[in-house]
Amino acid sequence: MQNKYKSAEVLYNNKRAGIIKRTDSGYEFIYDLDYLGDNSSRPVSLSMPLSQEIYRSRELFPFFEGLLPEGWLLSQTSSVLKIDVNDKFNLLLNIGRDTIGAVSIIPLDLN
Fold first, then answer.
1. What pLDDT score does 4 carry?
2. Nearest CA to 38 among 53, 10, 16, 8?
3. CB of 89 within 8 A of CB of 53?
4. Cα separations (Å) of 98 from 11, 25, 26, 57?
């Protein structure tokens, strides 16, 4: 299952909130303009308030990494999916459809 995804749609309560991407220098997250224009929209994370700015990080954003299982379950998930346990982004995009809470991650493409 070693799919190497490059980007994904981030849904909040089944609404497209934005896009997360892996780049040569790390990661980017940007909110969808329609989502920003909806007065009922909420930030996906308190660390990423609603904004038109592109959020950039050298490491996977802590909020998104926090959606992954931990410990034994992370090891088992990594083993079953045949994805290196340190490839947090690829793990997230492979299991992110069914996270705890309001956020879902849907892969968009393969590189």
1. 63
2. 16
3. no
4. 11, 28, 24, 24
